[in-house]
Write a structure and sequence with these properties.
By secondary structure, the protein is an all-alpha fold. It is 79% helix and 0% strand.
Length: 80
């Protein structure tokens, strides 16, 4: 991802770079780049889904703990 951001920031066109090597490799290079881009998009989407799934239980637990903390703060005489 860091490499992609660096390339995007430098306005480097990887597809053009790969396909301009020789005319013989233009079609296979474009096909490879297209496949790599699709794979990257799919992996990125899957990792985002996994992150949301892994974070959901933690967010629920934090919400519960914050509610309990607020309850205890509102009623300090009941803590004993």
């Amino acid at each position: 991802m860091v490499l992609r951001n660096a390339v995007d920031g430098a306005d480097i066109d990887i597809v053009e770079g790969l396909t301009s090597i020789t005319a013989d490799f233009s079609k296979p290079a474009k096909a490879f780049v297209h496949t790599a881009q699709c794979l990257y998009a799919r992996i990125s989407a899957d990792l985002s889904t996994a992150a949301v799934s892994l974070q959901a239980p933690l967010k629920r637990r934090i919400k519960t703990q914050l509610a309990e903390l607020k309850h205890q703060t509102d009623r300090p005489d009941e803590m004993a």
